[in-house]
Amino acid sequence: MPRDPVASDALAAIDHARDGLYALSLQIHRNPELAYQERKSCALVGSFLADRGFKVTSSYAGIETSFRADAGSVAPTVAILCEYDALPDIGHACGHNLMAMMGAAAGIGVRAVIDRLQGRVAVIGTPAEEGEGGKIALLEAGGFDDVDAAMMVHAGSRTLAYRRSLASVRVDVEFHGKAVHAASQPDQGINALDGLILTFVGLNALRQQLRPDARVMGVISNGGSAANIIPEFAAGKFSLRALDRTYRDEVIERFSQVARGAASATGAAVNVAVRRNSSYDNMVPNRLLADRYGEHLRGLGVDVAQESPDERMGSTDMGNVMQALPGIHPYIKIAPEGTPGHSIAFRDAAATVEAHAAALLAAKAMALVTIDLLRDPALLRAVKDEFEQQRRQGLVRGRAQAAAKT
Question: What is the pTM of this model?
Fold first, then answer.
């Protein structure tokens, strides 16, 4: 444990709350809720923090399943983010129960010493990370306007202080044709399902001409109702990703051309719609903050790996936050290396004692980084200077442009 009395007191506060934090996480894990339906989880975390002295705002920024819990009264403000939405069918297979716990734990640590710091900590509940863009909605509503830096830690199968993500977007495709009897009058119909299937065939061909970092995947959500009826309607849901937001946008255009070509080939009409708040930008972590987090985590006895050139990556709306302000989104190992995210194995790992112990160490490191920022103005200036340099290089948009883009 650090000899610094402020840090020591913060870590002691987290340890004192350990049993309650574990119970909070497990209760969320047992009761998974989907995007924007996380009413119980949101209320649980908000009440947990209110009981420990935070000033809690429910339905933060006009979003029902968001909250904000503040401690301290003056600027600057460092935000620690919580996630708590689950996945369809497989529950907390991304470990968001642990991310809720880590955010609450780090906040509790900072609040215990906030009177000895210069600024404010805000624990913000961010719903709907799994494809519905809760953080994007918060950005649009001004929920980060007073935040100087933001952070959260993700559960994973490797511990990383610095990790990027893929830019992504969700696209809905609908084909409209003409229904007729498939045996007696097929020549008079227009097969909407054929248009959708040709889209998948075209995407398989397109992949050969995409960069290796691009990902194009989809499912058929509606393929018709009976084999003896030419389908007049067919629909698919697609996820498009790339290492950076610029190439992601190029993939969107090329995907749209494939769908329009399929419509032309079949005579069906097509509608290609990007889902609102699904355009997740790639993360651009603040290197200074990431390095400081890694130092604290190592000081707590945790081995920290280095991001590899071929790192496997997903996508997160934390990328949009990092386009607006300095932030980090490190990973803490809670499952054996190689355990796939969004799997039953990962869901089960997220409820283990070992996972909670690891997550609590990550929360402690977040608390220590937040304390550093709130008592060292020079560090916060350096973090902001790095972000400004990233903005000049075109790696991030900056606060005004990010808000306008989303």
Answer: 0.87
Q: How crowded is the C-beta side of 286, counted as CA atoms within 13 Å?
A: 31
User: Boundaries of CATH 3.40.630.10 in the chain?
Assistant: 5-165+282-405
11 and 80 Cβ atoms separated by less than 8 Å: no
pLDDT digits (tens, 9 = 90+) for 205-233: 999 999 999 999 999 999 999 999 999 99
State the span(s) of the chain assigned CATH 3.30.70.360: 167-274
- b/e sequence 138-150, b meaning 16+ C-beta within 10 Å: bbbeebbeebbbb
Give yes or no for a contact between 196 and 258, defined as CB atoms under 8 angstroms apart: no
- pLDDT tens string 26-54: 999 999 999 999 999 999 999 999 999 99
Candidates 145, 125, 110, 142; CA nearest to 67 is 125
Domain 167-274 has CATH 3.30.70.360: yes
- Enumerate the H helices of 267-376 as residue ranges: 287-299, 318-324, 344-349, 353-375
Question: Token pair for residue 213?
Answer: 């970092």
E-only strand ranges, 183-330: 215-222, 233-242, 269-274, 327-328
Signed CA dihedral, 124, 356, 290, 370: sign only? positive
What residues in the chain have per-residue pLDDT under 70?
A: 1-3, 400-406
Which strands, in side-by-side order, build the sheet including 327-328?
55-58, 67-71, 120-125, 77-82, 149-151, 327-328
pLDDT in tens, 88-147: 999 999 999 999 999 999 999 999 999 999 999 999 999 999 978 999 999 999 999 999
Query: 5-165+282-405 — its CATH code?
Result: 3.40.630.10
